[in-house]
Amino acid sequence: MSDHQNMKLPLPAVLISAIGALNRLIQTLAQPWLVQLVLRLALAVPFWKSGILKWHGFFQLSDTAIDLFTQEFQLHLPGGPYPFPAPTVFAFLSGCGEVTFPVMLVLGFGTRFAAAGLIFMTAIVELTVPEGWPIHLTWVAMALGIAAWGPGRLSIDYLLGDRSFRS
User: Fold this and answer.
1) Is residue 20 part of a domain?
2) With CB atoms 3.0 to 4.6 Å apart as the test, which of 8, 100, 116, 153 could cross-link to 33 if both were Cys?
3) Does any domain span residue 134?
4) How far is the C-alpha of 124 from the C-alpha of 151, rounded, in Å?
5) Domain range enclosing 43
6) pTM
7) Count of domains observed in the chain
């Protein structure tokens, strides 16, 4: 062992050294491509879980989905709440978006478009369930991060030339 390795560092220096090592470890783990992948997966999950419940078969809405938009869901706008106009159309579009956009995110294909679609859907969800704003804010934050920084290296978009994120 060298003299340098045998020297005991004073407590603040040990603490500073440990913090520096922990910081380097975190930076090693939190690679931009991994963060982008995890954001895409995390945002896809709640929408996918909601979307698959709306279908009873291929392009066949479940009765529950139609009932939700016909009887339960209301738009909380000034002077309201108001029933959804064309509830079956809204249920169908919601079901399509909640299944299609998460698949696009997971694959990293049309990723920014999918993120923008989920921002729009989240706005509608917020008008329908205004007390859910804390989780809706989280969804919008994730979607904005995806839209801003792109899909990352583990994506079809990257293979097709989307290299806009500067890591």
Assistant:
1) no
2) 153
3) yes
4) 24
5) 32-159
6) 0.80
7) 1
